[in-house]
Design brief:
By secondary structure, the chain is an alpha/beta fold. It is built from five helices and twelve strands. The protein starts with 6 loop residues before the first helix and ends with a strand.
Amino acid sequence: MIRRVSLVDLSSKRRRLRRVLFWGGILLALGLLVAGVLWVVIYSNVFELKEIKIDGETYITEESIREFLRTRAARGAFTRFLGVDNILAWPRELSGEDLRELPALSTVKIYRNYAGHTVEAVVTERERVGIWCFVAKEPQRCYWFDRGGVLFMPGYYAEGNLTPVLEDRSRDALALGERVLPERNMPNLLSIFAALESIHLSVEEVRLDDLGKEEVVAYTHDGPRLLFSLRFPTTGVPAAIATVAKITPLRDLQYIDFRVENKVYYR
């Protein structure tokens, strides 16, 4: 039997073949393009990281920051595949959650230099405002804290040091990265330290005996105890002490009480 094929059928087959070849060519080109990009990104040295620069550090060593940053890079699925030695695996900045492992840093911004094969980390360290010592149990533990009350680095208590030191006898030691006081209380504590710096009495120690009372006691050398509240800012302490000193010798007093706002009591 003779099979008849019309010109219309032949033309239709040719069109289908051309479409298949056209889209097949496009898919092949895209596949080759993707393969090329992946080769450049993963296997070539175009994005190879050769140096990690650190800027902004003062008391934290560059090497400790560099080691920390390498643990923070390449955290995603694809960037883990790239590895920390690929510039593309490095984030633009680190989150607060990332920085919990190195709380001495408050911010980290990362700048990539593709031409120089480097990344530069610009860090902001927490301000060392004072030392908080937990002395309720042995071993005693001391940490630096910042203006927000965040513990961020081990410290060492030394009598006579110009750095403000507070002895916390009310609880066990907190961990690095935790806050020693509620946010509302920290400015008030800092105002107490500022007041103690402005008076002419020698302060031997500053103690927090009961956190629930929100009170701080400063013990002076051969003078009265100074009682403060953490509920409000402390002001006018030098003038108040000078006024009391005109009435009675300070060495004869047991305490001067500033725990009521805008009032002073002594005994």
